[in-house]
C-alpha cells in the first residue's frame, strides 16, 4: 500500500503535514537516495525516506496537553535560542510538535503531538474547534463592545465569525473578558480587542474544545487519556459544510 510522502513524514513525527510539504518542496527529502520535490509523490513501506539525511521511522502517535507559560516560543526550535514548548517536554522520547500556536507572551492550553493527520484537521480553517480565551484589556468594556465581538469585527478587510463573550469583571483601568472563537487567524484575539479600542494587556487560552487546564500549573503538562484522544478525533471531524 502506498501513501503520499508528506503523510508518511507527518506520521513519523518529523513535522506537521503542511511543514512536511514545505520540506519536500525545498529539497530536504530523499526517497531511496534521490531528492524528491513533487508533493504528489507516493511511497511504499519498503522505500527509504530521509529528511535532511536522517532516516524517518514510524513512531506510535502520542498526545500531550501543556499549560504553556508566557515567555516561551510555540515552536520545535528557535534560532534566537529562546525556550520553546518542546524544551518543556524534553523528557518525551517521540518527536512531537505543537498543534497551532500561542504567542510568546500568551499563556494557556496547547496541544502537542506527532499525529500529522490530527494536527492538519485541528488547524485547518474548515474545521471549527472552539477555543476560549481570558483577556485582561485596557479600559472599561461595555455591552456595546461585547456586541461588536459577538457579531464580528473587520480585520484585514475580512469580518470575523460570531464569538461568544462574557465580561468577568472591571475596575477603573481595565477589564477581564472571556472570548470564545473557532477561527485561528494570526493574533486574532489581540486584533479583535484592538479593533474595539481595548488593547490586550494579558492573554491566556483556557479551553480547547472540551479540554481545559484543570489540575495543571503554568509549565506543567500531561498525556491525554485514551478517551480524550478519541473525543478529540471525533471533534476534528466536525466540518462545517
TrEMBL record:
Keywords: Isomerase, RNA-binding
Domain RNA-binding S4, residue spans: 3-66
Gene3D superfamilies attached to this UniProt entry: Alpha-L RNA-binding motif, Pseudouridine synthase I, catalytic domain, N-terminal subdomain, RNA-binding S4 domain
Highest taxon in the source lineage: Bacteria
GO MF term (any one): rRNA pseudouridine synthase activity
UniProt xrefs under Pfam families: PseudoU_synth_2, S4
SUPFAM superfamilies cross-referenced by the UniProt entry: Alpha-L RNA-binding motif (SSF55174), Pseudouridine synthase (SSF55120)
SMART domains found in the cross-reference section: S4
InterPro entries listed in its UniProt record: PsdUridine_s_RsuA/RluB/E/F_cat (IPR042092), PsdUridine_synth_cat_dom_sf (IPR020103), PsdUridine_synth_RsuA/RluA (IPR006145), PsdUridine_synth_RsuA/RluB/E/F (IPR000748), PsdUridine_synth_RsuA/RluB_CS (IPR018496), RsuA_PseudoU_synthase (IPR050343), S4_RNA-bd (IPR002942), S4_RNA-bd_sf (IPR036986)
GO cellular component term, pick one: cytosol
UniProt similarity note: Belongs to the pseudouridine synthase RsuA family.
The protein's name: Pseudouridine synthase
Originating organism: Lentilactobacillus kisonensis DSM 19906 = JCM 15041
Amino acid at each position: 500500500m502506498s501513501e503520499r510522502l508528506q503523510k508518511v513524514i507527518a506520521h513519523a513525527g518529523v513535522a506537521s503535514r503542511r511543514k512536511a510539504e514545505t520540506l519536500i518542496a525545498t529539497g530536504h527529502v530523499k526517497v531511496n537516495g534521490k531528492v524528491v520535490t513533487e508533493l504528489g509523490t507516493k511511497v511504499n513501506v519498503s522505500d527509504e525516506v530521509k529528511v535532511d539525511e536522517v532516516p524517518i521511522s514510524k513512531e506510535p502517535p502520542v498526545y500531550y496537553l501543556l499549560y504553556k507559560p508566557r515567555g516561551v516560543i510555540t515552536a520545535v526550535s528557535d534560532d534566537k535560542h529562546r525556550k520553546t514548548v518542546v524544551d518543556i517536554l524534553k523528557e518525551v522520547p517521540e518527536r512531537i510538535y505543537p498543534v497551532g500556536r500561542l504567542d510568546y507572551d500568551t499563556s494557556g492550553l496547547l496541544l502537542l503531538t506527532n499525529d500529522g493527520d490530527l494536527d492538519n484537521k485541528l488547524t485547518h480553517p474548515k474545521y471549527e474547534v472552539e477555543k476560549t480565551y481570558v483577556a485582561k484589556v485596557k479600559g472599561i468594556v461595555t455591552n456595546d463592545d461585547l456586541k461588536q465581538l459577538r457579531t464580528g469585527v473587520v480585520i484585514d478587510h475580512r469580518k470575523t465569525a460570531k464569538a461568544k463573550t462574557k465580561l468577568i469583571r472591571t475596575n477603573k483601568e481595565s477589564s477581564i473578558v472571556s472570548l470564545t472563537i473557532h477561527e485561528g487567524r494570526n493574533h486574532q484575539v489581540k486584533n479583535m480587542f484592538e479593533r474595539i479600542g481595548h488593547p490586550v494587556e494579558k492573554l491566556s487560552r483556557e479551553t480547547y474544545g472540551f479540554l481545559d487546564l484543570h489540575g495543571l500549573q503554568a509549565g506543567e503538562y500531561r498525556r491525554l487519556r485514551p478517551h480524550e484522544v478519541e473525543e478529540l478525533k471525533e471533534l476534528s471531524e466536525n466540518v462545517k459544510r
